[in-house]
Write a structure and sequence with these properties.
Blueprint (H helix, E strand, L loop, with lengths): L1 E6 L19 E4 L3 E3 L5 H8 L8 E3 L5 H4 L2 H10 L7 E5 L3 H11 L7 H4 L3 E5 L3 E4 L2 E5 L7 E7 L2 E6 L6 H7 L4 E5 L12 H11 L3 E5 L9 H9 L5 E3 L5 E4 L1
Parallel strand pairs: 3-4, 4-5, 5-6, 10-11, 11-12, 12-13
Antiparallel strand pairs: 1-2, 1-14, 2-3, 7-8, 8-9, 9-10
Bound molecules: zinc ion (2 copies).
One zinc ion (ZN) binds next to α2.
């Protein structure tokens, strides 16, 4: 399984997560058929990567905070107007994902909001506390906005992704033994509900993960990704990858 870290930035102004023009907000492409998160600038980076958006079958969202989600409008609009998509698209996420997606499209007064004009069907899946379907498993975590962690398994390999939930017992259980443990990092020092490098290192060790990749990493570490990896390595002995936009990792 190939994971392309199309966009790696988050946005929490004042916490080193400002926008610099160097990186797009979160988007990952899994093989050629899934997208995980669609932050601001997702379409720009997907186009720069040469992604075939008509091959995408599912878009998964961890939670509705804008740096994980707001780029969806342009991706859906591009599928309609540029790609002339006909195949249905599944959008998976927390409770409210359908209302939020449809709401954004209609607030922006875009024709893609109209089910007939769009030309392709949108199928929504709102996640419960635990889910298992196709090659996907999810659990509901804990964050100010309802957040879900994912695990995707293909050909005997699996990766885990936590897009900002605290590492609850259930989230850690989902991560157990994953070949790649992907997490966002939001703050440098431990915080009530934002993930710090220490939390990722400890959680990956506890889950017995083989490798770690961190995204949403702070602007201060642009050009110094090795230094950032060392912060995680204090609590995790395996390989730590700090992907830049378009870094591809084979799982
Ligand atoms: Zn975020
Ligand atoms: Zn968030």
């Amino acid at each position: 399984m190939k994971i392309n870290f199309i966009g790696t930035a988050g946005l929490v102004p004042g916490m080193g997560l400002t926008i610099t023009g160097k990186r797009g907000q979160l988007t990952m492409q899994i093989d050629n058929d899934y997208l995980m998160e669609v932050g601001d600038g997702a379409l720009r980076n997907l186009n720069a990567n040469g992604t075939d958006l008509n091959a995408i079958k599912k878009i998964m969202i961890s939670h509705l905070h804008s740096d994980h989600f707001i780029g969806i409008v342009h991706v859906l609009f591009d599928m309609m107007h540029v790609r002339n998509r006909k195949e249905p698209l599944e959008i998976i996420g927390p409770k409210g994902i359908e209302r939020a997606t449809r709401g954004l499209m209609s607030l922006c007064e875009l024709p893609v909001a109209n089910d007939e004009k769009r030309g392709y069907e949108l199928k929504f899946k709102e996640l419960g506390a635990f889910e298992k379907f196709d090659d996907i498993q999810t659990v509901r975590g804990s964050h100010p906005s309802e957040a879900h962690a994912y695990r995707i398994s293909r050909n005997g390999r699996s990766f885990f992704y936590n897009g900002e939930s605290s590492f609850t017992k259930e989230v850690l259980e989902l991560a157990k033994g994953a070949d790649l443990f992907i997490s966002t990092v939001v703050v440098l020092k431990p915080h009530l509900f934002h993930i710090a490098p220490l939390d990722v290192g400890r959680a990956a060790t506890e889950a017995g993960a083989k490798r770690v990749a961190v995204i949403h990493w702070p602007t201060e570490y642009e050009g110094k990704r090795d230094e950032f990896a060392k912060l995680i390595n204090k609590h995790f002995k395996g390989e730590v990858i700090v992907p830049d936009d378009f870094t591809v990792v084979e799982v």
